Amino acid sequence: MKSVLYCRPLARKAMLPALTPSLGRVVAASRFSTASARLQATPAPMPSQSTTDSAASPPAFTSAGLDPYRPGFFNALDRIMKLRKKYAEHRHLFVPGEEMHEVLKSIGATDEDFERLRQVSNHLGKDPTLPFREIKQGRIVYDFGADKAIYRTEKQPFILSKDEGFKRHDSDSLREFPEVADDLQQNSVLHALLRFKTFFIQDLEIAKRPAQDYTSDKWICTLFNVRTFTSDDVLGEPALEGVHSDGVDHTMVTLLGHDNMTDESAITLIHDMREEVGIPIDQTKGPLVKGVAQHWDFLDTVLIVDSERFHSLTPVRRIDESRRSTRDVLIFFTRKPALEGHASYGVDSTVRHKTLPMRIPVS
């Protein structure tokens, strides 16, 4: 039985033989898996489940503060709803950058800001625990209640725990990152990306994680602007932790650019939750790979129902060994507010940022 890949196949020249032999076998096996192989897999612990609705009825939201007179607006909404349907059915989704560009422009992004966004990763700060990464972080609330807005919150430490499916040397540690500034947060493309994600988190039945408030009309979004690089001194690992979960309900990753990066770099494998957490990507089981994708073009975007899928990535490798390679992305981790017992309880403020305010209406 074929295991259908709902993400775009490996981009450009990144064919299976170009991968390491072991990883090549994993990806190849993912294309043709048998029911018996799936049944023989050892289940991994999963979050408590809610009934998932593959049909995904339309969300009960308005036009997310958008201008219906903007050219292409209704066509963009139709595209988004078709993408939402695929996401609801398959629990992960790849959207090519060219399509993202058209959709984002129709929901508020300007031509000038697309060009500015390509450069924003040139001004990042040092990652506190990973020597191959430069980074900035911002916390955002989607408030679908009284405020009906997407807004920036005050700075808070960040934590991911082993219990959430994240095994790394800095798991369960509070980390502090440099803050996202106005060069990114006031960019109309970022605003459009935040609006775009609105359509994928509202009224979609997913597996529920423990100690999150699913009765709340708010969603917490942690935004990261990340540059992963490889140099003479370090190998850039977009997922040093191997197979993992991001500890949230929905993950979205959008590519801003890359330089001097080989075709087999930063390939994303999406795994069934029966895969073993923490193992390297080349040790994963082909029959448990649900999808394969590679961010290559500007704005290429992957969305994952993080409470129902694991994922892993290959390292960033250099074409020209005399200079470093880079890969720049925006990462959007989105979940319901933390309750007592959650790793983020106590560092999950919804108070507005006083010096870096941002507000985007959603009605």
Structure notes:
- One of its GO terms (molecular function) is dioxygenase activity.
- InterPro entries: 2OG-Fe_dioxygenase.
- It holds the Pfam family 2OG-Fe_Oxy_2.
- The chain has helices spanning 21-31, 35-40, 73-90, 97-106, 111-119, 182-185, 188-201; strands at 92-95, 125-126, 133-143, 149-152, 218-230, 250-259, 267-271, 289-294, 301-305, 310-313, 325-335, 359-361.
- The chain has 363 residues and is α+β, with helices and mostly antiparallel strands.
- The chain has one domain (16-32, 61-361): Sandwich (Jelly Rolls), CATH 2.60.120.
- Strands 1, 2, 3, 4, 5, 6, 9, 11 and 12 form a nine-stranded antiparallel beta sheet that branches.
- The N and C termini lie far apart (45 Å).
Summary of the model, kept short:
The protein is α+β, with helices and mostly antiparallel strands and 363 residues long. The protein is built from 7 helices and 12 strands.
